[in-house]
Amino acid sequence: MTASKKSKLQPVVPFSLFSARDVELFQEGIHAHLYEKFGAHTLEYEGVKGTYFAVWAPNAAYVSVIGDFNEWDHYSHTLYPRWDKSGIWEGFVPHAKKGALYKYFIRSNSGEELRKGDPYANYWELRPRTASVAWQLDYKWKDKRWMEQRKKHNSLESPFSVYEVHLGSWRRPDKNDHEVFYTYAEIAAMLIPYVKDMGFTHVELMPVMEHPFDGSWGYQGTGYYAPTARYGSPQDFMAFIDAFHHAGIGVILDWVPSHFPYDAHGLYRFDGSHTYEYADMRKGYHPDWNSYIFNYARNEVRSFLLSNAVFWLDKFHVDGLRVDAVASMIHLNYSRETGAWEPNELGGEENLEAISFLKHMNETIYKLFPDVQTIAEESTSFYGVSRPVYMGGLGFGMKWMMGWMNDTLAYFKRDPFNRKWHQDQLTFSIAYAFTENFMLPLSHDEVVHGKSPMMYKMPGDDWQKLANLRLMYSYMFTHPGTKLLFMGDEFGQTTEWNYKSELDWHLLDHISHQGLQQYVKALNHLYTSEPALYIKQFEYYGFEWVNVSDHENSILAYMRKSYHSKEDILVVLNMTPMAHEQYLLGIDGEGQWKEILNSDDTRFFGSGVINTGVLTAGESPVNGKSHALPLRIPPLGASIFKRANS
């Protein structure tokens, strides 16, 4: 290429990656791959290397690219508006290279001037800097085996034990310096062996999409198409996921299609108008989070969000999306007083546009990626969140069981000797446990904002607190549904989670906390190795109450059932510190049972009230059952049994 040839190219060359069909799908709200069109794409045009830029700014009178390649000049690199009135501005900038810093300079029709980051950027500067970075997502994946086999790992008939992690505060190079982070590679080197050893099947990462404020924990995002630069490059994050897959661990991303912050470089009033958010602040402003709500009625916004969900599954091989704040998306009156919201066209409280978006999003995801899961954080009794769209549902794979979480924590906070009056707080969950595909969450939300760490929610002295925790986790891991546990809960964190520091790893110097950690490890092993605990985890015929009436002793017993009775698991829970040496548990039918896990075992820092050898059910009517099984019942403990001849 001669110098004269190069010089013939204008500063911005008319060029497009969009076909007419792309624009049509974009405007219909059903384009699932916009990340291949919008944003910054390095390519070669007429023998000249450079970068193609495309941005949607329908209310703009003028758009240019400003960056370190043109000294942030507002007028040297003007983009071309498409002739089809789509609101898309685009053009090829010769010699703009990968790694170039850039923003869009936008003058709105009202004359307002804005400098915005790229909504589709794949990389951003590290906060507090706010420029986008021209980047490519080339990466050679090494997880072919996982991708070919992940259907069995992510099946609804497979065990799902999720370790929820905030990457910045799991461990830190210096727990007193919140400005320094480990890299994706360094975190992976420590986190993967730990998760593997503990027996979790998946990790769920609190939002890794680029966000300006650490204190939002990632839930106030500006860079929806970019993993945060706090820990490295997009390729570093790809290698991070690759390494988890190589270890046989799935990766779920926390995803926030509900709201975004008002930072000047972000989506808010992107082109001087309410581009991405509702114009009516009764729908467009979120009073709880001081943020703005996506306009699900605008098709281009629907395409932006749909493409974003697909983007993480496609380009980053993630195994699922946990969708944040679904309740706030689908209810117009969410956290709003009377008069502060307007009913929908049918007079109801549902956001019909958000509902239709979620249905289409889930249908699209499961069509393109049938071996992943979408998981809704939805706190109401809205019908069919995890039911297929063709059955009138929203189409999610699973839904967080917030009612179970609230009732369980409320029960375990009680003095054990008062629990007999409140047994219904535990038994009630089974009444609705099979109306959805529920995941049982003990998440970050339960250990912040003055709610206290999990250990100090429990009553009693330190021994009783830990015994209560082991008991509660036993209940969680044997209750129908999949599981999610926030980092630190597994070893009895004694302070609330602090995103600026790291977990209290020094607690593992104490055998009491080691015992809890080892017990969670044992529960994970039990859950993943016993089909009765997961094969029917969403089916009512996978559960049977054995004893639900012993309120006086606060003892509960139930069976988890597999397809084969020899695999059935019997669970006995004692909610008081009173041990029982010869407790007769009424069960149906004869048989021999063997204890396979006991939370009071001394290796878990228990008192050692365990059942040894083979236990035989004798023919003796007890509590309406034909036989009686004599048991040692541990104090504040769980005894878990399996048929001895299995």
Automatic annotation (TrEMBL):
GO terms for molecular function: 1,4-alpha-glucan branching enzyme activity; cation binding; hydrolase activity, hydrolyzing O-glycosyl compounds. Pathway: Glycan biosynthesis; glycogen biosynthesis. Its EC number is 2.4.1.18. The keyword Glycosyltransferase applies. It is an enzyme of class 2 (transferase). GO terms for biological process: glycogen biosynthetic process. Keywords: Carbohydrate metabolism, Glycogen biosynthesis, Glycogen metabolism, Glycosyltransferase, Transferase. It catalyses: Transfers a segment of a (1->4)-alpha-D-glucan chain to a primary hydroxy group in a similar glucan chain. The active site is at D324 (nucleophile), E377 (proton donor). GO terms for cellular component: cytosol. The keyword Glycosyltransferase applies. Catalyzes the formation of the alpha-1,6-glucosidic linkages in glycogen by scission of a 1,4-alpha-linked oligosaccharide from growing alpha-1,4-glucan chains and the subsequent attachment of the oligosaccharide to the alpha-1,6 position. NCBIfam families: branching_enzym, PRK05402.1, PRK12313.1. HAMAP family: GlgB. This is 1,4-alpha-glucan branching enzyme GlgB. The gene is glgB.
